[in-house]
Amino acid sequence: MKVSDVMSQGCLTCKAGDTLHDATQKMVMRRCGSLPVIDDNDASKLIGIITIRDTMLPLYPNFGEYIHDAKSARDFEDMEENYKRVMCMKIKDVMTPDPMTVASDTPLLKAASYMGLKNLRRIPVVDDGKLTGMVSIGDINRGMFIHNG
Question: Distance (Å, rounded) from C-alpha 99 to C-alpha 83?
């Protein structure tokens, strides 16, 4: 079985200049945990990936802040005030650039192995330098255990 047998095509994308609000809204409305980030000038060129976790991390104190001042690092009112600023940030500032990808002809278990090694839930599918879809661990599980069983 190949990635092409289970992957999603025509996936939702975003651009590096979009805001975190734009990306978060798309992910929440479509119930997906990540979006491929495409080049502003070439909609088929993958330049990164953003996850729902990436959009949330800027809201929380980093480990160093927490260690030095655990009490004020947990100022939830301040975090809530920070929300508006964070949601205006650009995707390019928090995305993972040049993400791991697979090709549509990659064997399913090979893709699953890559995902397992890197603890990824989704991975972009790129053929001949062009984004052709996304494959998730759920897609792989359905392909391996439901459709192939």
Answer: 26
SS3 (DSSP) at 88? coil
Contact between 48 and 23 (Cβ < 8 Å): no
Q: For position 143, what pLDDT does the model report?
A: 85
Q: Which tokens go with 44?
A: 């088929």
> Could you read off the pLDDT of 8-40 as tens digits, one per residue?
998 899 999 999 999 999 999 988 889 999 998
Sign of CA dihedral 82, 83, 84, 85: positive
* Residues ≥6 apart with Cβ < 8 Å to 7: 104, 125, 132, 133, 134, 135, 139
59-103 pLDDT, tens per residue? Answer: 766 555 545 555 555 556 666 677 778 888 999 999 999 999 999
**Distance of alpha carbon 35 from alpha carbon 52, whole angstroms:** 9
Q: At what angle do helices 20-30 and 76-87 cross, to 10 degrees?
A: 100
Over the Cα atoms of the chain, what is R_g?
Answer: 17
CB 11 within 8 A of CB 36: yes
Q: In Å, how far are 23, 24, 122 from 47, measured between CA atoms?
A: 15, 18, 16
